[in-house]
Amino acid sequence: xxxxxxRLMAAAVFVISTAYAEEEFDFDDSLFDEVEFExxxxxxxxxxxxxxxxxxxxGTSKLADWxxxxxxxxxxxxxxxxxxxxxxxxxEAQSTINWPVGESIYGTNDETDFDSELNLGYLQASAGPxxxxxxxxxxxxxxxxxxxxxxxxxxxxxxxxxxxxxDGTGQFLISSDLYISQWTLSAFYSPKAEYSPGLxxxxxxxxxxxxxxxxxxxxxxxxxxxxxxxxNTPMPDPESFFSETRGDEFNLVGMSANYAMGKTLxxxxxxxxxxxxxxxxxxxxxxxxxxxxxxxxxxxxxHTRSDDLQLVLMLISxxxxxxxxxxxxxxxxxxxxxxxxxxxxxxxxxxxxxxxxDLNLEVLTLLAANGDxxxxxxxxxxxxxxxxxxxxxxxxxxxxxxxxxSFFDEEVLLSASLIYRH
Length: 422
What we know:
Elements: H1 2-18, E1 50-61, E2 68-82, E3 87-98, E4 102-104, E5 107-109, E6 113-127, E7 130-137, E8 171-180, E9 183-190, E10 208-217, E11 220-230, E12 235-236, E13 245-246, E14 249-261, E15 264-280, E16 288-304, E17 310-320, E18 327-330, E19 336-338, E20 342-354, E21 359-368, E22 373-383, E23 388-399, E24 412-421
Antiparallel strand pairs: 1-2, 1-24, 2-3, 3-6, 4-5, 6-7, 7-8, 8-9, 9-10, 10-11, 11-14, 12-13, 14-15, 15-16, 15-18, 16-17, 17-20, 18-19, 20-21, 21-22, 22-23, 23-24
């Protein structure tokens, strides 16, 4: 892996080194000779840089016989401000109380659980064409959000959680941007890879590093990427009898592009990934893990019909380059299923705002081409005034009986949140 990263660094240095009718009025100003004007210094409001959010959420489920599966109270505190002409800072922390709801198909929660987390906290310094940033935050690569093609640095919550936000989970990063002529050269380093929320993390620690060169030509934007990453979804480790997970290190080279045509934006992401871990069946009792190379491609369309109405379509496909017939994955009841050579999924979302943007609606549909999963999620939020807001989420799914998502078949998730912000 060290040799892979060394080749990657050398390639990055090569890429960066090659980028380079008038009316006149009579005004008697003596009228104001004896008038004294007092200069008033305008002070920024405390609320402009500091926020407090208090929320309460209830969730229920059809497969849980419409009993409560979540009862959550949270307090969020945030701050953002320019500390000087060259230094900017931002901070956001959240404390959450999960109240007891009993037993359900999603687990047992008989005790009150308290959790605190730093969502965001960084300083950003700028000087001329150079900008540097350090702390905990998110970085978005590529054009296809949630596609897992290039947008893999900060993994978002799984769509099956009902969270339609594309915001990823922040992780500790050091990054910089250099603006040269028509190019933006970027680099980042993370001492610890971040995994998708809700999944068991491997015991070992892995770092991540990446480089990006971006430019604009006419109505199009282009980006070129190199990086060494860890798969956001940890792989169950056969050597521990699947009781532990292991990190999946791989290298990436890719490109992205978008092209604007009026109110329509066309998007493209391509990534070649070297060293993706897969399970393979053999004569032993447990499968083995082998590395394969994979080509990920995503195409998207974003159409804005008006200031409020937006339609997004995305098609994502994966192709295992050096495919073998004995590649497997585990489906329902730990059944060994053959890993397909090609996988694809279609995602579509429609969002609109009403009542002067106080009422917002988003509907998202996800379809797997092989029929493993079909999912529809709806998010509605209404802002009552400057302080109070309410949000409703509904999600339903149909899956194949042998799919890895089979436990989710015919599920309906409902949640409601009341949020106060000051």
